[in-house]
Automatic annotation (TrEMBL):
The chain crosses the membrane at residues 44-67. The lineage of its organism: Eukaryota, Fungi, Dikarya, Basidiomycota, Agaricomycotina. Disulfide bonds join 137-141. Pfam families: SCO1-SenC (PF02630). The keyword Manganese does not apply. Belongs to the SCO1/2 family. It is found in: Mitochondrion inner membrane. The keyword Disulfide bond applies. This is Thioredoxin domain-containing protein. It comes from Tetrapyrgos nigripes.
């Protein structure tokens, strides 16, 4: 056979793709090696489906709000423990005298004062819900006052013989004038008592209730300043003594039931 003919026979073979024989499972076993893992299937691993993605977002949001609420409860309990340990519950509250923004002239217990005033003595004989806030508060104060309104309405229906008076004490004496507080409280319960004083009087009553507030002593009524304060509704018994402090995380149903429980204990 000539050299030309040999090259003609082998050229087609060289043009074919080279195929490498892979060992079979039997050959792997005979060689004493493990069988190679099967190659992954494309349809096994993939991106989130719309349903799983939505479920992931819902679960994440739920966990966020749960732990945020839990943290707020822990902080409020620590604050209440601090008040109880540092000062003692019986010492919370005390004498004060403030302008009664919602009273009519001549209705004050202090007849010598031409301006209606409200004192700690006016709290005797009734259960009182005392909240410290300010009228320029954008969201927290209105929400807490709405909650107190709902609680008072609930108690008036379920326990008609229970006298409960809601009290609002301003921590912003520079801007919260009596006329402003009076108009502001009209949006809430009609029995709300609105109280204001000068800076020294406000500081004194806040100190007696262990309330923190950040209003500057020389604040400009027309200025733009921030006010931070403690967010608690204080329950005082008919003797004017502190009973409990309800935090922001406690809803109106829990608050109403807690007050009923305290009233039952008081009556016993």
């Amino acid at each position: 056979m000539s050299l030309f003919r040999c090259r003609a026979q082998f050229v087609p073979l060289l043009r074919q793709p080279l195929r490498v024989a892979r060992p079979t499972r039997i050959q792997y076993r005979r060689a004493g090696t493990s069988v190679p893992p099967p190659s992954p299937q494309r349809n096994v691993v993939g991106v989130f489906s719309p349903t799983s993605a939505a479920l992931f977002v819902v679960v994440g949001a739920g966990m966020y709000f749960y732990f945020t609420n839990k943290k707020q409860k822990v902080l409020e309990e620590r604050e209440k423990e601090r008040m109880a340990k540092s000062y003692g519950r019986p010492n919370l509250g005390g004498p004060f005298s403030l302008i009664d923004c919602t009273a009519t002239p001549g209705s004050s217990s202090n007849k010598e004062d031409s301006v209606p005033r409200f004192t700690d003595q006016d709290m005797l004989g009734k259960w009182s819900l005392v909240y410290f806030g300010f009228t320029n508060c954008p969201d927290i104060c209105p929400a807490e006052l709405d909650k107190v309104t709902a609680v008072v309405n609930d108690l008036s229906k379920t326990v008609p013989s229970l006298p409960v008076q809601p009290i609002f004490i301003s921590v912003d004496p520079a801007r919260d004038k009596p006329s402003i507080v009076r108009k502001y409280l009209q949006e809430f319960h009609p029995s709300y008592i609105g109280l204001v004083g000068d800076y020294a009087q406000t500081k004194a009553v806040c100190k007696s209730y262990r309330v923190y507030f950040s209003t500057p002593p020389d604040a400009d009524p027309n200025g733009d300043y921030l006010v931070d304060h403690s967010i608690f509704v204080y329950l005082m018994d008919p003797e004017g003594k502190f009973v409990d402090a309800f935090g922001q995380v406690m809803n109106k149903e829990e608050m109403a039931e807690k007050i009923k429980e305290y009233v039952r204990e008081w009556n016993q």
